[in-house]
Design a protein that fits this description.
Elements: H1 7-21, H2 42-53, E1 74-75, H3 80-93, E2 97-99, E3 116-118, H4 124-137, E4 141-147, H5 150-164, E5 169-176, H6 185-201, E6 206-209, H7 217-229, E7 237-240, H8 257-260, E8 263-268, H9 276-281, H10 293-301, H11 338-366, H12 380-388, E9 391-393, E10 399-401, E11 412-419, E12 425-433, E13 443-445, E14 473-477, E15 486-490, E16 495-496, E17 506-507, E18 512-514, E19 521-523, E20 525-527, H13 534-559, H14 564-568, H15 571-587, H16 597-631, H17 644-668, E21 672-680, E22 683-689, H18 693-716, H19 727-749, H20 754-785, H21 792-796
Parallel strand pairs: 1-2, 2-3, 4-5, 4-6, 6-7, 7-8, 20-22
Antiparallel strand pairs: 8-11, 9-10, 11-12, 12-13, 14-15, 16-17, 18-19, 21-22
Helix pairs in contact: 1-11, 2-3, 6-7, 11-12, 13-15, 13-20, 15-16, 15-20, 16-17, 16-18, 17-18, 18-19, 19-20
Length: about 800
């Protein structure tokens, strides 16, 4: 008996007990079980299936001997061969089958196997994980051991195609014969000796094994012989697939801990199931009636149970008080194994499917449409559709569901086996494969947590045909040789390889050159006014700060718009001016960051238009003040020109002219991003080419013209009585504005690269803030801190 595999029975019984005690899951249904052993035999699996179909009366196909019980589903088998035999029989009866260890891709064919669901993920992810593991540790020279059957050939064919894409070579492939009674000892010994000699002759540290405990029994014989009889353990990095747990051995056979120390194994994903270890702790062979529990107990604890006719010569009697936790790991593990976890989830998947089916039957009965589900017992063919779309969380907190092929949507764990001299061991999860994760995160590995075989002195072993070609060299594969066995050739001048094992040397771009080691192209550094640079960060922060101040001023004027000082100003002009100033601050962001096609098109045109609107507002304010003063004289005819229409017309006319200039600019010679590789010897300046410098300076000239006119009018109106105008504020603001932009031209022309952008952004922020501060800060001061001045009497009071 494989005592370690008996945990599958415990997991099955434990899940059934949990479900039957659950008041919410299947409250009116009690699940009963029948457990039969196929002993890795397809014939026995077929007989067991027929036995279950006839419910133990007669193994007659398609004949039900009793109505006392109803077979709703079958869970099994562990291998693909036994699962195939079971599926061929169950498909006729449309009875769902949940296989917990079959990786053959044929089972994903829902046309051929519509009733079979696999509690294992698609094996393609195991191929992916193996390839990623080799890449992670830099192994490209490996030995492959496969069973001597169709599954081994399929694995070799698919894996080879995957490895060749990553330049990983299989140096040796050996088929391990299945050990059966049909082999005479000399023939078997000769074949196993040939495999052992091949393994020893190849100085390769990594050996990948595909197979299960039955097909790899020949390999176990080899390792046992060399470790215990010849005292030469085959200390390698053994990598095993999910089909084989190397710690599982038959009763009386020693576990080859020195050979398998440091093994990396792919295993079906498992987790800690609450209550399972307590269930194992409380088992007693005398009190429990679990299938073959007494035989298991005798085999595991090497004792007899005379009361049940289980007498073994020279063995003590079992007391029934033995504890499973005291058994060696190779005999029995308390931690739930991968296959046991799959069985546990399979039982719960069936239970949830039954629950949904029963709930649907109850709902249809309530609305009077139970005819379609008139039987009290749900039929297996009805359960199949519920299984396909089942989705639930198990007691370990993990979601369980099937993909479109009827395979479990789960992954694999990468287990590191650490063995000890007393036949004990420890399994440590060091990685995993999660098919549900994003492409770059499906494979995870913690290489520092791996404990290697002591032969490698705690260092990751090397397993390569030749040493890596270092940067500055490329691989040269000799004709007829393995792609992994190559020469290293240094790169020529102007070409580089910047990584290990480069297939060829890459030519440096025209704006790069190779260094002396030919492992790096030295590029010119791209420079632009970035947010991360100190000056860029200061300018961006200033723009945000000034924008917030502008919004606060807008909020103040909106809140106090019924007060005299706000009413005294043209509300339309005030709103347009504040919005344009806000846009002036925000347009500075078009000059920051990497120049792009859109930002280059917008930065100068938006700047020119919004600044023209702002200056137009200042001009409109000045003209309004002058006309207002003149209109106060008795009999003056200018009073009819005072009003919103005049101010709006001035703003509209001045802004439209600038807009037309910008439109002509964009149509004839629009700005575009460019890389200046000649101005700086070691830098590439990313900048905006203005397209037409004439149009750029025309935009600036028109803006200066408006500013000059506004300054001139305001200057001559500065001595008008304070009660009628704000000409002094406009004069000072326009003086600052003109000073900034007059000094801008020489500064702009005398700088290059990012300094040109800095000068322009600085000018935008300073001139905009000057307008904001000079025009609105005095008014805000009076509104917020001198409310006694914000009265009509004060505004109409004439200055003496």
């Amino acid at each position: 008996m494989l005592t370690k595999n008996y945990q599958l029975v415990f997991a099955f019984v434990f899940a059934i007990h949990e479900i039957n005690k659950n008041d919410k899951l299947l409250p009116n249904i009690t699940l009963q079980t029948e457990i039969l052993d196929d002993a890795f035999s397809s014939l026995k699996a077929s007989l067991a299936t027929l036995d279950l179909l006839s419910l133990g009366r007669m193994d007659v196909p398609n004949y039900k001997c009793t109505w006392e019980k109803s077979l709703i589903a079958i869970i099994g088998g562990l291998t693909s061969q036994t699962s195939l035999q079971i599926a061929n029989i169950l498909n006729i009866h449309k009875i769902p089958q949940l296989s917990y260890g079959s990786f053959d891709p044929i089972f994903s064919d829902k046309i051929q196997f519509p009733s079979l669901f696999r509690m294992v993920p698609d094996e393609i992810f195991q191929y992916f994980g193996i390839t990623q593991l080799f890449e992670y540790f830099g192994w490209n020279w490996i030995v492959l051991l496969i069973p001597e059957d169709e599954s081994g050939e399929r694995f070799h064919r698919i894996l080879s195609a995957s490895l060749v894409q990553k330049d990983i070579c299989i140096a040796l492939t050996q088929s391990v014969p299945t050990v059966t009674s049909y082999f005479s000892n000399p023939i078997l010994q000769k074949r196993l000796n040939a495999i052992a000699a091949a393994l020893l002759s190849k100085n390769i540290n990594v050996i990948l094994v595909y197979g299960d405990s039955q097909s790899m029994d020949g390999l176990r014989i080899i390792l046992e012989s060399y470790e215990f009889f010849q005292k030469q353990p085959m200390e390698r990095v053994w990598i095993t697939t999910a089909q084989w747990d190397v710690t599982t051995v038959f009763s009386g056979i020693r576990f080859t801990e020195r050979s398998f120390n440091g093994t990396l194994s792919f295993a079906l994903h498992t987790n800690v199931v609450p209550g399972f270890q307590e269930f194992l702790e409380n088992l007693n062979p005398i009190q429990s009636k679990i299938y073959l529990l007494k035989e298991f107990w005798c085999s595991a604890f090497i004792c007899s149970l005379p009361m049940y006719n289980l007498n073994y010569p020279n063995l003590r009697n079992c007391m029934g008080e033995e504890k499973l936790r005291n058994l060696p790991g190779s005999v029995f593990e308390m931690r739930m194994s991968s296959q046991s976890y799959s069985i546990y989830n399979a039982v719960y998947a069936l239970a949830h499917a039954l629950h949904y089916a029963d709930s649907l039957r109850a709902k249809r009965k309530a609305i009077g449409t139970e005819n379609s589900w008139k039987h009290m017992n749900i039929q297996p063919w009805q359960l199949r559709s519920f299984l396909r779309y089942i989705r639930f969380n198990n007691s370990a907190g993990e979601e369980v569901f099937f993909d479109e092929n009827g395979d479990l949507a789960s992954g694999f764990d990468v287990i590191n086996l650490v063995t000890f001299s007393n036949q004990s061991f420890q399994k440590v999860q060091v990685g995993g494969i999660d098919p549900q994760a994003s492409a770059g995160k499906r494979f995870t590995m913690n290489g520092s947590a791996v404990v290697w075989n002591h032969k490698f002195k705690k260092m990751p072993p090397r397993s390569r045909c030749v040493e890596n070609c270092q940067p500055g060299y490329s691989r040269l594969v000799q004709p007829g040789n393995y792609v992994c066995c190559y020469d290293c050739v240094q790169c020529a001048d102007g070409r580089i390889s910047d990584h290990i094992d480069a297939s060829e040397c890459a030519k440096c771009p025209d704006d790069h050159y190779s260094n002396e080691k030919q492992d790096q192209c030295l590029p010119k550094r791209d420079i632009y006014l970035s947010y991360t640079e100190p000056l860029g960060a200061v300018l961006a922060s200033s723009a945000v700060f000034f924008s917030i101040i502008t919004i606060m001023v807008m909020g103040t004027f909106i809140h106090y718009q019924v007060t005299p000082i706000v009413k005294a100003n043209n509300w339309t002009i005030t709103c347009i001016l504040l919005v344009s100033l806000l846009l002036c601050f925000l347009c500075s962001f078009l000059f920051l960051g990497t120049p792009g096609k859109v930002s280059c098109l917008l930065r100068q045109t938006v700047f020119g238009v919004v600044f023209s609107i702002a200056i137009s507002c200042m001009l409109a304010k000045t003209i309004t003040v002058v006309l207002a003063f003149i209109a106060t004289k008795p009999g003056n005819k200018m009073r009819k020109w005072i009003g919103k229409k005049l101010a709006t017309s001035v703003i509209f006319l001045c802004s439209v002219i600038q807009t037309l200039i910008c439109a002509v600019w964009l149509i004839t010679a629009p700005p575009f991003p460019e890389a200046d590789m000649h101005s700086q010897p070691a830098e590439t300046i990313l900048q905006c080419n203005e397209g037409s410098e004439t149009m750029f300076y025309l935009v600036l000239s028109y803006m200066w013209l408006l500013a000059f006119i506004s300054f001139t009018v305001a200057f001559f109106a500065r001595k008008l009585p304070d009660s009628f105008n704000e000409a002094k504020l406009i004069t000072f603001s326009m003086l600052v504005f003109c000073s900034v932009w007059v000094s801008f031209v020489p500064s702009y022309l005398s700088t290059k690269g990012t300094n040109m952008v800095i000068v322009e952004v600085f000018s935008i922020l300073v001139s905009s803030f000057a307008l904001l501060a000079c025009i609105f800060f005095p008014k805000c001061y009076m509104i917020l801190f001198r409310p006694e001045l914000n009265v009509k009497e004060h505004l109409v009071k004439k200055k003496h």
